[in-house]
Design goal:
The protein is mostly helical and 287 residues long. Helix content is 62%, strand content 4%. The protein contains eleven helices and four strands, in the order ββαααααααααββαα. Strands 1-2 form a two-stranded antiparallel ribbon. A two-stranded antiparallel sheet has the order 3-4.
Length: 287
């Protein structure tokens, strides 16, 4: 039986010994097909895409700049767990957002989608905290014990942890199991958090779509193959991957605006006008 073989598609610039970027700023040996995204050449490969979407990347960098400046306005009082928790979540959001921008500029579209989902997961509890002052204790107290119980259950059911089966761990497991039966310990599902944050539409559509790339399913592998007009596989795609990239970064930016709304409410910062301005610009690009 004849088996057709596929190859990794090399880029045409490999035929050149040296190249110069469009600005003529440097000469360098092509390196993308040799060391991938860790080389310098990916910046030149992505240059035309970034120029075509200048409005998008200028906007998300403005939002990032404003978001980073905002963190210095957070007046976090000692022993105020709601302020500490919300500020920590906000920093997680900022770092995640900047990571998506870095990945997007390198043409790592799938990885950008994965981080956008993580960004969304961080915003759900932050949004709840902006309207529910008691949620902090509920979320962190219950979640900590829930994680403890999961580990203890693994210790006493999986042979991998057989050396950790101590009397103290067994007693703690019994206490936590009793609290769980009494509904003092509960797991927070992502869908529940989204609903309580009044962001169920984000969960039902955005979160589900982004999950396609987070989980390794047959569908998630389509990004790594190239097909012809008849959907026949012709080669592998080792990047860059820019399909839906603009949508990913704009989605992450819109999620960050919700985070800004939340900390504005929690810390009484009055960011409403600036947030609306950013939101209008996102909507205009998406039209």
């Amino acid at each position: 039986m004849l088996v057709k073989s596929y190859s990794f598609k090399q880029n045409s610039w490999l035929n050149c010994e040296i190249i110069k970027n469009s600005r003529g700023e440097r000469l360098m040996r092509p390196d993308f097909d040799e060391i991938g995204f860790l080389g310098q050449q990916i910046d030149d490969i992505m240059e035309s895409y970034l120029k075509e979407n200048t409005d998008v990347f200028e906007l998300i960098e403005e939002i990032s700049l404003f978001g980073n400046q905002a963190k210095y306005k957070l007046n976090v009082q000692a022993n105020e767990r709601r302020f500490i928790a919300s500020a920590s979540l906000y920093l997680k959001v900022l770092n995640c957002f900047q990571s998506t921008i870095i990945l997007a500029k390198k043409g790592l579209g799938v990885e950008c989608a994965i981080l956008t989902r993580s960004l969304l997961e961080a915003v759900f509890p932050l949004k709840i905290m902006s309207s529910n002052k008691e949620f902090t204790e509920e979320f962190f107290g219950s979640n900590h014990k829930s994680m403890q119980l999961k580990w203890l259950n693994a210790i006493f059911t999986k042979d991998t942890f057989i050396n950790n089966r101590t009397k103290a761990n067994e007693e703690l497991r019994e206490i936590l199991q009793k609290e769980k039966l009494e509904d003092k310990i509960r797991d927070f599902k992502v869908e529940e958090l989204a609903s309580r944050a009044d962001m169920e539409s984000y969960y039902q559509y955005v979160y589900r779509v982004l999950s396609d790339d987070v989980h390794t399913t047959p569908f998630s592998l389509y990004s790594y193959i190239n097909t012809d007009n008849n959907d026949n596989i012709v080669s592998f795609n080792n990047g860059p991957i820019t399909r839906d990239l603009k949508d990913y970064v704009l989605t992450s930016a819109s999620i960050v605006l919700i985070a800004l709304e939340s900390i504005s409410e929690i810390f009484d910062l009055n960011f409403d006008d600036k947030i609306k301005c950013f939101d209008d610009r996102i909507s205009k690009i998406w039209q």
